[in-house]
Design brief:
With 96 residues, this protein is mostly helical. It is built from 5 helices and 2 strands.
């Protein structure tokens, strides 16, 4: 709760990096348009799979250099989270 409070104040005062603010604004804009969000995540998942070129992990990633500088990012395996969530429930406990 405390971290959220300070992050909100940081955002309100414009202290966070401009790239982070623009990224969040884009995410919000897409989130308000579910069809575009689904299309963007579909293309992103396929793009990252292509970028991995058969490797199980990405050691560098567009727009994720800060993350992949110190760790690898797992290659996306299946569809998007939303597609998997709305797909058939075949796992144990799916009827709950």
């Amino acid at each position: 709760k405390m971290m959220r409070h300070w992050r909100e104040r940081e955002f309100e005062k414009g202290l966070s990096p401009s790239a982070a603010r623009r990224g969040l604004a884009l995410w919000r804009w897409l989130g308000e348009r579910p069809m575009l969000y689904a299309l963007a995540t579909w293309f992103s998942a396929r793009g990252l799979r292509f970028w991995a070129a058969g490797s199980p992990r990405l050691s560098h990633m567009p727009l994720g250099e800060g993350w992949t500088r110190h760790r690898d990012f797992p290659r996306p395996e299946g569809g998007t989270f939303q597609a998997q969530w709305t797909g058939p429930r075949t796992h144990p406990g799916a009827d709950r």
